[in-house]
C-alpha cells in the first residue's frame, strides 16, 4: 500500500539517534512488512480526551510509549515552572496493573526528577482514587496515574491531576497541551535525579482508608454490618489494595472475594473486558453469590474508579443495576442522611453529567439543593467543587458506573462508593427491605426512569472518519420526530447553541464546548450522541420515563419503557 509522505516523515524522525535502537528496529520492521500498522502508529499524535491520554502501547506518535509519555511529562514540568516560579515543585505518581505500567511510571518519575521536581512514587500499584487523595494529602502540585481504566489489555494511559485533586480542566488542559506540542522529542530530559524520587505506601494507604470510612459510613449498627453477605471482585485490578481493608476496618465481616480474579493481572484472563459496565465481567461473582447466598455483588474496574453492583430482586434473583440506578440510590441516601443530620441549609449541591439520568434533577429539587450538571467526566464535577468553594458538595455521579462521595477524593471513587452501597444495603436488610426495594420506592416517588447505552466501535483512521460523519448527519439532518414523538429541543454542545422548536427560539449553552448532541422529545425522552474521548467508539445514551403507579405494576411499566427504548433505537437505525 502507498504510505503518505507526512506519515513517512514522522516515522523517519523516530529513526534518528534521539530514539533507542529497539524503537528504530520496530519501525523498520513496520515499514517493510506492516505498512497499515505504521500508518495507524503515526497518522496523528495521541490526544488528551475526557479521561487524559489513552492508547495502544507501541512505537509511534499515536501510541503509548516512553517518548510520548516523556514528552507529556517534560511539557508538564515546563508548565509547572511557569505557574509556580520559585516554589519547590512536588508531584505524586501512581499506576495500575497494566502491562508496563510500573516501567512507564518510573520513566515519568525520572523525567520529573531530571527537571528538579520532587517525586512521590507509589512503590506498588494503587487505585486511582488514592492518587487523587494523596495529591492533596502530600500538598503536591500535580498527580499522574498510569492507567487505561477498563480498556483492553493492549492499552495504557496517562491521567493528569491538578492541585485540587481533580483532573486537569480548561484553561490548564489547553495550556499544557500547547506546552507539550511546542516540544521536540530531543527536548525530553530522561536523566533521573534519584535523590528527588521518594517511594510511598503504608502511610498514605492508612490515611486513605481512614478518610474513606469517615466520608462513606453512616452509623450502621454492628449487627447489620455483620449480617450483610458481600461478594466482591477486583477483576484483576488495583482495588484489592484498598477495598478489603476499608470494608474490614468499617466492620463488615462477611466479605467473600472471588479468588480467581483476586491477583492483579494486566491480561485480565478470566474476562472478555475488565469493565463492570459489561454484565459478562461479573459472571464469576454472580455465580459465587448464588452459591453462598450473597446479598450484594460489587465488582470494580482495573484502576478502581468504577463499580458494578448486583442485588437480589423481589424474587430473590441476582440482577445487575446500571450506573444511573446505583447513582440515584446513593445520592438519595446521602441527601436523606444530610437532611436527618440537619446539614441541609440550601447551600449544598449534588453533581451529575449531561448524559446521565434526569432523575438526579428531581432528587435535588425534592431536597431543595442544587444539581450542577456538567460534561461527561468527573473532572467537571471536581471543577464545580473548586469553582464554588462556598457550597458544600454532597455527592454525585455519572451513568458510566462512577460515583463520588464528598470531596476528599476529586474523581470517581469505587472504594468509597463500595463502602457506601454496602452501608445502604446493610441498613435496608436490617429494616426488612433491600437495595432493590429502595430503588423501586424511589421510582414510586419520582417517576420510573429507564436508561440505556449503545456503544458502536469503529477502529482506526477509517473508523474515526465514520464516527465524524455520523455526528455530521445528526447535526445537519436533524430528525423531526422519533418514535411518534416530536423533537422539541436540540442542544449542540460543539456550537454551544440550543434550539427550542416549541417556541422557535435559539439559546446559548454555558457548559464548555464538547462534541455532544442531545435530542429532547415531547414525552420527556432524551437521546444523546457523543464520540468517546478515550476509545474508538460513538456512544448513544437513551433516557425514557413514566409515572410508576404501584410496585405491582413495576414489571409491566419496565417492559413498556424497554419497548420505548427499542423503538427509538430501531427508528434511528442503530440496531447494528
Give the key terms.
4 domains; alpha/beta; globular; eight-stranded antiparallel sheet; 24 strands; seven-stranded mixed sheet
Radius of gyration, Cα only, in angstroms?
24 Å
CATH top-level class of the largest domain: Alpha Beta
Number of strands: 24
Helical percent range?
25-40%
CATH level-4 homologous superfamily of the largest domain: Alpha-D-Glucose-1,6-Bisphosphate, subunit A, domain 3
What is the CATH architecture term of the largest domain?
Answer: 3-Layer(aba) Sandwich
Strand content is: 15-25%
Please tell me about this protein's structure.
- Its EC number is 5.4.2.-.
- Keywords: Isomerase, Magnesium, Metal-binding, Phosphoprotein.
- It comes from Flavobacterium indicum (strain DSM 17447 / CIP 109464 / GPTSA100-9).
- It is an enzyme of class 5 (isomerase).
- The chain has 576 residues and is an alpha/beta fold.
- It folds into 4 domains: 1-43, no CATH class; 45-200, Alpha-D-Glucose-1,6-Bisphosphate, Chain A, domain 3, CATH 3.40.120; 207-446, Alpha-D-Glucose-1,6-Bisphosphate, subunit A, domain 3 (Alpha-D-Glucose-1,6-Bisphosphate, Chain A, domain 3); 450-571, TATA-Binding Protein (2-Layer Sandwich), CATH 3.30.310.
- Strands 17, 18, 19, 20, 21, 22, 23 and 24 form an 8-stranded antiparallel β-sheet that branches.
- Helix 2 crosses helix 3, helix 4 (66-83) crosses helix 7 and helix 8 crosses helix 10.
- The mean pLDDT is 96.
Amino acid at each position: 500500500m502507498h504510505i503518505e509522505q507526512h506519515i513517512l516523515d514522522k516515522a523517519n524522525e523516530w529513526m534518528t539517534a534521539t530514539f533507542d535502537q529497539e524503537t528504530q528496529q520496530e519501525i523498520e520492521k513496520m515499514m517493510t512488512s506492516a505498512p497499515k500498522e505504521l500508518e495507524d502508529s503515526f497518522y496523528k499524535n495521541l490526544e488528551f480526551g475526557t479521561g487524559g491520554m489513552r492508547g495502544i502501547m507501541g512505537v509511534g506518535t499515536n501510541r503509548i510509549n516512553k517518548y510520548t509519555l516523556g514528552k507529556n511529562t517534560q511539557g508538564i514540568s515546563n508548565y509547572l515552572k511557569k505557574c509556580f516560579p520559585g516554589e519547590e515543585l512536588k508531584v505524586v505518581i501512581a499506576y495500575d496493573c497494566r502491562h508496563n505500567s510500573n516501567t512507564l511510571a518510573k520513566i515519568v518519575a525520572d523525567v520529573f526528577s531530571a527537571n528538579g521536581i520532587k517525586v512521590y512514587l507509589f512503590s506498588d500499584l494503587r487505585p486511582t482514587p488514592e492518587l487523587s487523595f494523596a495529591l492533596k494529602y502530600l500538598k503536591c502540585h500535580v498527580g499522574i496515574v498510569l492507567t487505561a481504566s477498563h480498556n483492553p489489555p493492549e492499552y495504557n494511559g496517562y491521567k493528569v491531576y491538578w492541585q485540587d485533586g481533580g483532573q486537569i480542566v480548561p484553561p490548564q488542559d489547553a495550556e499544557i497541551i500547547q506546552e507539550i506540542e511546542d516540544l521536540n522529542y530531543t527536548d525530553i530530559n530522561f536523566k533521573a535525579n534519584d535523590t528527588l524520587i521518594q517511594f510511598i505506601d503504608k502511610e498514605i494507604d492508612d490515611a486513605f482508608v481512614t478518610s474513606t470510612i469517615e466520608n462513606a459510613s453512616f452509623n450502621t449498627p454492628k449487627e447489620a454490618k455483620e449480617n450483610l453477605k458481600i461478594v466482591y471482585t477486583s477483576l484483576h485490578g488495583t482495588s484489592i489494595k484498598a477495598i478489603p481493608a476499608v470494608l474490614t476496618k468499617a466492620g463488615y465481616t462477611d466479605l467473600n472475594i472471588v479468588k480467581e480474579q483476586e491477583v492483579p493481572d494486566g491480561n485480565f484472563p478470566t474476562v472478555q473486558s475488565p469493565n463492570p459496565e459489561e454484565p459478562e465481567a461479573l459472571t464469576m461473582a454472580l455465580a459465587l453469590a448464588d452459591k453462598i447466598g450473597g446479598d450484594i455483588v460489587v465488582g470494580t474496574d482495573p484502576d478502581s474508579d468504577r463499580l458494578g453492583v448486583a442485588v437480589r430482586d423481589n424474587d430473590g434473583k441476582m440482577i445487575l443495576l446500571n450506573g444511573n440506578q446505583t447513582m440515584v440510590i446513593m445520592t438519595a441516601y446521602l441527601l436523606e442522611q444530610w437532611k436527618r443530620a440537619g446539614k441541609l441549609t440550601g447551600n449544598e449541591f449534588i453533581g451529575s453529567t449531561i448524559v446521565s439520568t434526569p432523575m438526579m434533577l428531581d432528587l435535588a429539587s425534592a431536597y431543595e439543593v442544587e444539581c450542577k450538571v456538567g460534561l461527561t467526566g468527573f473532572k467537571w464535577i471536581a471543577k464545580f467543587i473548586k469553582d464554588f468553594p462556598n457550597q458544600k458538595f454532597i455527592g454525585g455521579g455519572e451513568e458510566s458506573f462512577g460515583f463520588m462521595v464528598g470531596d476528599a477524593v476529586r474523581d470517581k471513587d469505587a472504594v468509597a462508593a463500595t463502602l457506601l452501597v454496602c452501608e445502604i444495603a446493610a441498613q435496608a436488610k436490617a429494616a426488612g427491605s433491600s437495595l432493590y426495594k429502595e430503588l423501586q420506592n424511589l421510582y414510586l416517588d419520582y417517576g420510573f426512569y429507564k436508561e440505556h447505552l449503545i456503544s458502536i466501535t469503529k477502529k482506526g483512521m477509517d473508523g474515526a472518519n465514520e464516527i465524524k460523519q455520523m455526528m455530521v448527519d445528526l447535526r445537519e439532518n436533524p430528525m423531526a420526530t422519533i418514535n411518534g414523538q416530536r423533537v422539541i429541543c436540540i442542544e449542540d454542545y460543539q456550537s454551544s447553541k440550543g434550539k427550542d422548536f416549541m417556541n422557535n427560539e435559539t439559546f446559548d449553552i454555558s457548559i464548555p464546548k464538547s462534541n455532544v448532541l442531545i435530542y429532547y422529545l415531547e414525552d420527556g425522552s432524551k437521546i444523546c450522541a457523543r464520540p468517546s474521548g478515550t476509545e474508538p467508539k460513538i456512544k448513544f445514551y437513551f433516557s425514557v420515563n413514566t409515572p410508576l403507579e404501584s410496585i405491582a405494576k413495576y414489571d409491566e411499566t419496565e417492559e413498556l419503557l424497554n419497548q420505548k427504548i427499542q423503538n427509538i433505537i430501531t427508528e434511528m437505525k442503530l440496531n447494528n
